[in-house]
Amino acid sequence: MGVLLGLTRPLARSERGTRVHDKIIKLSGRGHDEKQAYRAIELAQEAGNGKWTINIDLLSGLTRETDETWKQSVECAYLEADNVCCITLFYLFSKP
Questions:
Q1: Pick from 11, 5, 81: nearest CA to 48
Q2: Which of 9, 18, 43, 49 has the most CB within a 10 Å radius?
């Protein structure tokens, strides 16, 4: 998690390829699980004393993601963050 300066107040940014399902997180090679992601958000909220804007980056197109897991991820992000950025992954090629 890093802190970025915004125009009017600091922005706490939690990279959250966080999915509702830890299996998807693990398969995507992220360095955290769902519990750690929520904890990062809590720490940012505490550190900012309610004055920071919480941004979450959601990654779509991850291995084993379904419409239902994506919907759950978006709903969770909506409840936890002030801003949500959705990034779609796609693969150009795969090496054996």
A1: 11
A2: 18
Distance (Å, whole) CA 43 – CA 35:
12
- 3-class DSSP state of 12: strand
Q: Which two tokens stand for residue 86?
A: 């959705």
List pLDDT tens digits, range 45-54.
899 888 888 8
Token pair of 53, please? 């804007």
Domain positions in the chain: 2-88
DSSP 42-94: HHHHHHTTT-SEEEEEEEES-TT--HHHHHHHHHHHHHH-SEEEEEE---S--
pTM value?
A: 0.64
Instruction: Return the H-helix or E-strand segment holding 36.
Output: helix 34-47
Q: Can you tell me the distance from the alpha carbon of 50 to that of 73, in angstroms, rounded to the nearest whole number?
A: 23
